[in-house]
Amino acid sequence: MATAADHPLLLHPGKAPTQLRFRSRAVGSAETPLSSITPHDDPLRILAPAQKKLNTIDSQRVLAIVNDTSRRLESALIIPSLVAVEHHLSVPLGSELMSLLQEYKGAISELSTLQKTIEGSSSLLACSFPSNCSSVKSAELESGLLPVSSMEERRLHCLRNTIRHCVKSILRALSTNPSILQGVHREKVLSHAKLMEGFQGLCSVSNEMLLTTRTEEVKRKEHLQLVAARRLSMEENINKLEAELTVAQSQKDKEVSEKRSQINQLRGTVMSVATAAQDTARKIHSEAKKQQSQAETAHSTTKTKLEEEIGSVKKQLQDSVAEDKEREQETRKKTFKRELEVENWIKKYDEEMGEKQVWWSLCVPGFHVLATHAPHFLQDELEMLEEQFTEEKKQLKELEEKLGVIQHWSITDPQWTPLVSVFPDSEAKVRCGHKGTGGGSAESRARGAGEGEKDKGCF
């Protein structure tokens, strides 16, 4: 447990360096009229201050003093832990701070020894007192505050002054070098946590008091009075309801007692019915066992029959699967042959069109000469080429229809899909008009080939 000797700032709580004056309020804050208080207002909004920052210099100074005292108190609470670990932190603390800590340690030890001697003398005096001593003397004995000698008083006063001066000088040294406190904060004693929490609560209360205005205080008081009045009315209602509840409970107890008597009567009848039911249940159980044995025999016979049927059905299924596989292989071979034929037709058509395109590119200069000198000789040849073009168009349509049938069967029956995937470029070639090496449509290439034939006949 922490004593007053461990915290020299708490030896004389009446002698504070600064007195907090919470009467200094913020000027020019947002104030609301008292008539605006209604029971429907938000209680958190009423209890919280309207302004969020301190506007006046006095209030800011007061809050700064409170924060400074909290910081000093925290650093003063760390001094005993610094004294305990001074041999580990001799290098970062420095010679000056080490000497101050040693002086503080010596003064604390002397003060503890002096207090022990005073307590020993007070215990001896307590033994010398008679048993019929007054209450005041017994209280003094228990607290250890009997009068001591003048030398001891002077010694106590000197030790307290030296401890106070040592603490002040240590705090000054720590304020100049705050990096020392960073490692010691973690090793702080847990018994001081409550003290720091209480002082932080005091800081928050002082900040809230500085932020609140007079009108806000009045409004808060009126709101609390209204809440108290509501609480009184609610307590009265609760008392009335409790009285009504006691009356209702008494009536209910009477009804329960009457119902219990009825229940006891019904229990007797139920017991008689239960005995009769047990007899009937035994009879039903025996009959059910007989029926169960008969059902089990029938089930075993049906099970054997069904197993035989399942075996025959499995054999039929295997045979049908084998037949289906053979049919599938045959259909795949047929479709593969058809695909090969279609692909060969498409290749032949592409080769013919490529040759015609080459021939057309070679005969273009002759066409220009014929167009200027002998246009009437080309009419018959052009008609013949158009007929050839129409026939080739019909053949191309037939190829497209065959390919469409194959694709239809591949969509409806998934067994045909691998046959269509063998020649994936056939559909694109048919759709594009089986383009050869040259550009342009099939009709234009046929016309060019017809003109080339006419030129060839003329030459």
From TrEMBL:
Lineage of the source organism? Eukaryota, Metazoa, Porifera, Demospongiae, Heteroscleromorpha
- In UniProt terms, what function does this protein have? Component of the nexin-dynein regulatory complex (N-DRC), a key regulator of ciliary/flagellar motility which maintains the alignment and integrity of the distal axoneme and regulates microtubule sliding in motile axonemes.
Spell out the residue ranges making up region: Disordered. 280-333, 431-459
Q: Which InterPro entries match?
A: DRC10
- Out of the domains of life, which is the source? Eukaryota
Question: Which UniProt key words apply to this protein?
Answer: Cell projection, Cilium, Coiled coil, Cytoplasm, Cytoskeleton, Flagellum
Stretches of Basic and acidic residues bias are at: 280-290, 322-333, 444-459
Subcellular location, in the record's words?
Cytoplasm, Cytoskeleton, Flagellum axoneme
Task: Please give the coiled-coil regions recorded for this protein.
Answer: 224-258
Protein family: Belongs to the DRC10 family.
Protein name as catalogued: Dynein regulatory complex protein 10
Bias class Polar residues marks the residues at 291-303
